[in-house]
Amino acid sequence: MSQKSRSRIAKELNKMNFHRWVQFPLNKIAELLKLKIRGWINYYGKFRMSEMRKLFRVLHTRLTKWIRNKYHRFRKKPWYVGYKYLQKLSKDYPNLFEHWHYEGFRP
Q1: How far apart are CA 22 and CA 57, in angstroms?
Q2: Above 90 in pLDDT, residue 65?
Q3: Please, how many CA atoms are within 13 Å of residue 46, restricted to the half-sphere of its CB?
Q4: Where are the domains of the chain?
Q5: How far apart are CA 17 and CA 23, in angstroms?
Q6: How far apart are CA 71 and CA 69, in angstroms?
Q7: Are the CB atoms for 32 and 18 separated by under 8 Å?
Q8: Among 14, 29, 37, 70, which is disulfide-ready with 22 (CB 3.0 to 4.6 Å)?
Q9: CA distance 44 to 1
Q10: Are 99 and 59 in contact (CB under 8 A)?
């Protein structure tokens, strides 16, 4: 996966602004992102799946922003507290997001 493709997808994630979708539960956001993530994995992960880690790191930071906006208890705490909560969610619900099915792509 090239840097240009990765930055294009990061801009697309930024434009989606899903970190502001606090009215939706996390499983609804996972459902809305499912087809996009599956398409990226099928297209870009065909030859070197390990390059997708950098892209999913961007996605995980966006999900951490969503957690901090959704739950007030994470707002005044450092960002990594929300990230730890995302890690706990990925252990409890390993099939929630499409890329969490693959080894090494969980936060």
Answers
A1: 21
A2: yes
A3: 5
A4: 27-101
A5: 13
A6: 6
A7: yes
A8: 70
A9: 6
A10: yes
Residue 12 token pair: 């697309």
Give the pLDDT band (50/70/90) at residue 60.
very high
The residues, any chain, with a CB within 8 Å of residue 26's CB and separated by 6 or more, are: 66, 89, 96
Q: Taking the model in full, what pTM does it have?
A: 0.89
Any residues with CB less than 8 A from the CB of 74 and at least 6 apart, and which? 67, 68, 81, 82, 85
Rounded distance between C-alpha atoms, residue 16 and residue 5, angstroms: 17
- Give the chain's mean pLDDT: 91
Contact call for residues 63 and 86 (beta carbons, < 8 A): yes
Query: What span, in angstroms and rounded, lies between the C-alpha atoms of 81 and 24?
Result: 21
